[in-house]
Amino acid sequence: MADDTVNCKRRNFLWGVASGLGAAGAAGVAVPFVSSMMPAADTLAASTTEFDLSTLVSGQLVVIAWQGNPVFVVHRTEAMLKRLTNHEHKLKDPESHADPRVQADWMKTSEQRLVRSIKPEYLVLNAACTHLGCIPLFKPSPGQAEWGDTVPSDWPGGWHCPCHGSLYDLAGRVFDGSPAPFNLYTVPYKYLSDTKILIG
Ligand code: FES
């Protein structure tokens, strides 16, 4: 079972990176940049990771490595941010009270708990599904365009975990009915400049 879980994490890390590549391609961003984020052994061991947010275009997701773990970084559009409201009643923990990072300075207000980030437009999350650690797939488009009828027609966009079907919104908040018990965890990070962050 432990091996299965590890294999699931490894396989889905690659899927997650592939998802980032897809987003980059769709947005017209140079793929080599994202490829360069594939972790080398020494990178995996690094306790902190710097990332330049200015390399992202609006709506883009990339998956980077921090301490050997995949981390989602998303440049959310205004439209994505607007789609964080009106479905709180369908979420297990809309204000992230179960997130250990909720005590961080930037998670104090309801607004910050809604967007789950320091700057609303840039989301930084641990990419491991809180069920058994698979890497959810990025499904940012609203409605059923990418889904057929397997999700409600009012799907606001977010992530779908391919392992057991957990659904997360565009702030990584988990929907009721998902096997995942918690929202995707935030990670410790701070801004080194207007666009550069340090994770860890
Ligand atoms: S690991 Fe994501 S739903 Fe089970």
Characteristics:
200 residues; Rieske Iron-sulfur Protein; three-stranded antiparallel beta sheet; 24% helix; globular; binds FE2/S2 (inorganic) cluster
Architecture overview:
The chain has a single domain (2-199), classed as 3-layer Sandwich (Rieske Iron-sulfur Protein). Mean pLDDT is 79; it is low at 1-39. With 200 residues, it is of the alpha+beta class. The protein is globular, with a radius of gyration of 16 Å. The protein contains five helices and nine strands, in the order αααβββααββββββ. The structure holds FE2/S2 (inorganic) cluster. FE2/S2 (inorganic) cluster binds at residues 129, 131-134, 161, 163-166, 179-180.
Across the major sheet, the strand order is 1-9-8
* Strand percent estimate: 15-25%
Number of domains: 1
The SS-based structural class is alpha+beta
**What is the mean predicted local confidence, pLDDT?**
79
Ligand set: FE2/S2 (inorganic) cluster
Order of helices and strands: HHHEEEHHEEEEEE
